[in-house]
Amino acid sequence: MTMKTSTRQVDGVTIVDLSGRITLGEGSVVLRDQVRELLSKGNKKILLNLGDVNYIDSSGIGELVSAFTTVRNQGGELKLLNLTKKVHDLLQITKLYTVFDVKEDEATAIKSFN
Amino acid sequence: MSEQRVSYTLDSTLETVNSAEETASRLAAEAGFADEEVMKISMAVREAAVNAVLHGNAYDPGKKVTLNFERTPSDLVITIRDQGKGLDPKNIPDPLAPENLLKTSGRGIFIIRSFMDEVEINPTQSGTEIKLVKHVHG
């Protein structure tokens, strides 16, 4: 299953709801294009909801890192919401869990953006 | 507990990566591994297949990827060979080093080593071979 995305705005934060797989040749490109499009429109507070992402590989992890640094380099913030156990564990073993700002609750996540 | 060996020769495409992952998942499940172990094995195989297709063979249609699955009474042994320029395991940067944490690539071998019990990376006459071993517990 390839990845699907949809976006919504809540209190100035763009929430990107992702579902499916973020892997080489599938979700990675979709995620990259989505983040670029948001930045081009001036949306710099981005919350990636990964609650329905059931699989991610090293390419997908790389794409999350790329999205994180790209947004940050443009003066924005990118945070992660609702990690599944698989994604949580992968971010733990790759020591990225503490690099990303990871939230478990959408309302709290929205409030955490400056 | 029966012994079993299957082998596939595949093109250097993304379809091969997906096929390797699916085959690993099926064979690991058939070998009796629990769901979480099946996920780890299939992901390790996917990462090894990505290395073979992308970094080894560089999508070259003239180069093949060979996948071997061998079930022994004690192990599931998976071997993935490419025909690429070779990979020196000594020159793989540590993706956990602070200076590498925000790099967008370089985590594949680390994930493979994290998820399998034994990993060997060996140069061959025509490329690289990576051997992945998962012990059958219980």
Please describe what this structure looks like.
The complex is a heterodimer of chains A (114) and B (138). With 114 residues, chain A is of the alpha/beta class. Chain A has a single domain (4-109), classed as Transcription Regulator spoIIAA (2-Layer Sandwich). Helices cover 40% and strands 32% of the residues of chain A. Chain A has helices spanning 27-40, 58-73, 85-93, 106-112, and strands spanning 4-10, 13-22, 45-56, 77-81, 101-103. Chain A has a five-stranded mixed β-sheet, with helices on both faces. The radius of gyration of chain A is 13 Å and the shape is globular. Chain A starts with a strand and ends with a helix. Chain B is of the alpha+beta class. Chain B has a single domain (4-135), classed as Heat Shock Protein 90. Chain B is built from three helices and five strands, in the order βααββαββ. Chain B has helices at residues 14-30, 35-56, 108-115, and strands at 4-11, 64-71, 75-81, 118-124, 127-135. Chain B has a five-stranded antiparallel β-sheet with strand order 1-2-3-5-4, with helices on one face. In chain B, a hairpin with a 3-residue loop joins strand 2 and strand 3. In chain B, helix 1 (14-30) packs antiparallel against helix 2 (35-56) and helix 2 (35-56) runs antiparallel to helix 3. Chain B is globular. Chain B starts with a strand and ends with a strand. At the A-B interface, helix 2 and helix 3 of A face helix 2 and helix 3 of B.
Largest interface: A-B, 20 and 20 residues
Q: What's the CATH superfamily of chain A, by name?
A: STAS domain
Number of strands of chain B: 5
Which spans of chain A have pLDDT < 50 for at least 5 consecutive residues?
none
Low-confidence residue ranges of chain B: none
Compute the separation of the termini of chain B in Å. Answer: 12 Å
> Total strand count of chain A, please?
5
Report mean pLDDT of chain B, rounded to a whole number: 93
Which short descriptors sum up this protein?
A: alpha/beta; Transcription Regulator spoIIAA; 5 strands; 32% strand; B: alpha+beta; five-stranded antiparallel sheet
